[in-house]
Fold this sequence. Notes:
Layout: H1 2-10, H2 13-34, H3 40-58, H4 64-74, H5 97-106, H6 113-123, H7 129-136, H8 140-156, H9 169-188, H10 199-215, H11 220-233, H12 259-274, H13 280-293, H14 302-315, H15 319-333, H16 335-343, H17 355-367, H18 371-382, H19 388-400
Amino acid sequence: MAVAVAARLSGDLDAAEDAAQEACALALEKWPADGMPANPGAWLAGVARHKALDRVRRESARPGKEAAAARELAAGGYRGVAAPGCAAEARPPDGDADELGLIFMCCHPALDQAARVALTMRSVCGIATADIAAAFLVPEPTMAQRIVRAKRKIIAAGIRMTVPAPGDLPGRLAAVLRVIYLVFNAGYLASSGPALVRRELCEQAVSLARAVTALLPGEPEAAGLLALLLLTDARREARIGEAGDLVLLADQDRSLWDRAAISEGELLLEWALRAGCPGPYQVHAAIAACHSCAASAGETDWRQIAALYGELLRYEPTAVTEANRAVAVAMADGPEAGLRLLASLRTDPRLTRWPQFHIARAELLTRAGRRAEAAEAYDAALKLAMPAPERAHVKRRRGAL
């Protein structure tokens, strides 16, 4: 939030990050002596705002258009537009205006989408570079270089972090939705660390998804993303055992699922699908709904899920989508059917860095009675970073062999 407030005023991402860092440094100096404020985030944002204003005053006057845009966002008057082909009129978001505004700012079309998403996750959402690299299935140094190159391009091209015009919002929407989706994933299944779930990231992503649907209420993909996050987050409490350990979907106590969130997600998905503008997040949400609608794990419609993953390949033709489809096929037609599909993916260098790929192979190999190969797959997973509860689960599964 501190970076968002500072960037809104300065139009300069680097300057905003500097202002936020100065605010943090001041907090380290004052809080031990004066006590922590009641709202630390608001305190940091306020100090960062003053630092950014000081910098602006020291500089020459900015172009009138940028100043007017900053004043408009500061006054809360920023409004978007309905998506093309949708009759609904956009409304300003109820909350998270600063952060969502900065996400739209950073998703500048001068950068390729992967760079936009990575830079925004790092600079706006505060996601660690290692976690962003895990999301993109690339080594951390590679991701760090991408982020640095994106910042250099912004400086070299003289791009200022200004509020995009209403007509520019739809062109940036895909990158914005991707940022929110990956922030949620970073929270729902942490790539490393002591905890399986980072609740604050899950809640941040859901809040941002709500803000986007408020900004573009006629956009089916925004509704699809919110539906996906609600349907998935509804299972959060059941994923974690009393000791903080991982509970697999098939073993979860479904009475712990948040039925209100599931109902809201299903209604959003139904509306989005009726709009007749299909997209990947609607398909993702439909897959999540297959799980939420099943009364028990045994009643899950895995054939429907496999078919939906096949549809998802039209939008996201990635090895990860293929791997997920293979698992669904295995659940519907037996482990060997899934293993045949996974076999073609084993040479993909990105999947070798994804622990879930090796874990999925190990589970299917175990079910197929191929225990030695399963042990090797578990060992491959254990060589990679993963949260402590998941690592403990994999070690238990490996030990059972």
